[in-house]
TrEMBL record:
Keywords: Calcium, Metal-binding, Repeat. This is EF-hand calcium-binding domain-containing protein 1. Residues 100-135, 144-179 form the EF-hand domain. Pfam families: EF-hand_7 (PF13499). The keyword Ribonucleoprotein does not apply. Coiled coil: none annotated. SUPFAM superfamilies: EF-hand. GO terms for molecular function: calcium ion binding. The keyword Ribosomal protein does not apply.
Amino acid sequence: MATYEELLKRTQAMATRIAESTGVDKEFVTKVLHYTKSLVSLQSPDEIDDLIFCAQLGLRFGISSRYHLQLMFEAMCMPRKKTIQVEDFARMICIFYSNRLDEKIDFVFQVYNFNKTGFIRMADLFQMLKTCFVPFGEDDPVEQLKELVDLLLGVVDTDQDGTISLEEFRSFVRKDILCLELFGRVLPTEQILKSFYDLLNSKSYQAIKEYFLNERKKSLGENVAAIDQETSGLFPGIVLQMP
């Protein structure tokens, strides 16, 4: 079993790596790691399972689409396992706060590229957009969606090969940052990010540990058991737990 000094050294090394890769202040990264470690089980102290991942991104960060939550999890989980490393979860949270646009673009593209081919295909676009597409008029909604997909490919797919590469996506987003989550929201709103930042920033490391002491238990509690499978939201009717 690792000693306290060894655990502290590991945490500091993680914080350094995440701070360097995201550009987020190391002090805040360390606080994010203290929060993240409240989500693990005693049996798997370095891993976060899919239920906790989805519950936290719903309750703390307002990502309500079950479909896009699953895409986020699949983009980050370890091969052949349904868990995410503590460091990777904390890095994702810090990417939310990063001022480096390319970091956000790479993360969002990784989520959208759910087939892990390196390209977003027409079929992928159709699958993602149909979860949030609102048809208009009396025309066939499927045909409307197909027209939208064709339109998007015509604009983003600059080499006209029928797919969207990371570079094409990056070029498109740089022209209009509002297009970053064009295929579904996978980043928290600025208001939610500010609230969570203020919550962590106002507390010491020990206070963060105490504040989130029962966070895993909350995620596994009645709110999770009461999910309505017929709704599009992960936790319908639940107010985000913010200070």
